[in-house]
Amino acid sequence: MSALALITGANGFVGSALVRQLLHRGHPVRALVRPGSDRRNLAQLDTDLIEGDLTDAASLQRAVRGCAYLFHVAADYRLWVPDPERMYRTNVDGTCNLLRAAADAGVTRMVYTSSVATLGINPDRSPAAETTPVRPADMVGHYKRSKFLAEQAVQELAEQGLPVVIVNPAAPIGPRDIKPTPTGRIIVDALQGKIPAYVDTGLNVAHVDDIATGHLLAFDRGEIGRRYILGGENLSLQAILGMICEHAGMKPPRLRLPHNAIYPFAWLAEQWARISGKAPFATLDSVTMSKKFMYFSSTRAQQELGYNPRPARLAIADAVDWFRRNNYC
Description:
By secondary structure, the chain is an alpha/beta fold. Strand 4, helix 3 and strand 5 form a beta-alpha-beta unit. The longest helix has 21 residues. The relative contact order is 0.14. The model has no long low-confidence stretch (mean pLDDT 91).
C-alpha cells in the first residue's frame, strides 16, 4: 500500500495512532482535520495536512482527490450535545457524502470506523458478537443512534458496490488521549481521586494501538461489507478502577452505588450544562447505558484478520503513565 491514503479524524485518539502506524510502514498519508482543531497529535509527523469538515461536501471532494485509499475514522463522539442535529449531519450525512466522494474520485479500498455502540448486547453479560440481534430502539442517546444509522448506510453503500470494510472498535485506552475520551476521563478522574465509588457495569477496553493495527488488518484482509469487532478485554468498572489504582499506587474505591442513586445528579448536571455550555460530568443517557455490560468478542477479527490485542492491564498502564507525564493529574 504505497499509494496515498486519506485518514479523517487524523488528529484524534484512534486516528493519530493509525497515522503513526501507516507512516511507520512507509505509506504516505493525507490527514483531514477540521479548521481550528487541536493538532498536537500530528506534531512533527510527515503528513499532507488538509482542512475540511464532514458537513462540508466540497471540502470532502478536495480531500479525496488523488487518494487511492480511505480510512474514515472521524466522528462526533459526545455523550451529551446541545445540538443533536449537527451530530447526525456529521456522523450520518457526512459519512455518506465522504464515501460517495471517495468512490467518485477512484478510491479503491475503504475502512469505515463504526463502534461497538451499534451492536446488540446479551442480557446475560456474555460477550456479544457482530451477529448478536439488535434493534434501533436499543440505541440509547444520540451518539449511538447516529452511529447505528451511519453503519446501516455504509452497509447499503457496500451492497451497491463501494469497496468498504467496517470495523467496530471497543473503548480505546492508551497514550495521546488528549481530549480525553469518555474512557480516558474515567482514568484521569480516578487518578485525581474523583471516583470515590462505582456502579455495577462493564466495558470492553483495548489499547488504542491495537485498534489501529486492527484497522490495517481490516484493510489488508477484511471482506467488503463485513464488520469486525476490534476489542480487547471485558472488565467490570470495579476491575478497571482496580487496575488503574494498582498501577498508580492508590487505593481503589470500595463503595458500590445503585444506578438509580445517580440519576438525580445526572439530571442536575445536564441542567447546569444547558446554562454553562460545558459538558456535564454525567448524563441521563450514560447512567442508562451503565446498566448494561458492554462485553464483546473479537473472535471474528482474530480468526479472519489475525487481530491479537494485548492484555488490558498493559493498556491501562500505558494510559496512566501518559496522563501523568502530560500533567493531566
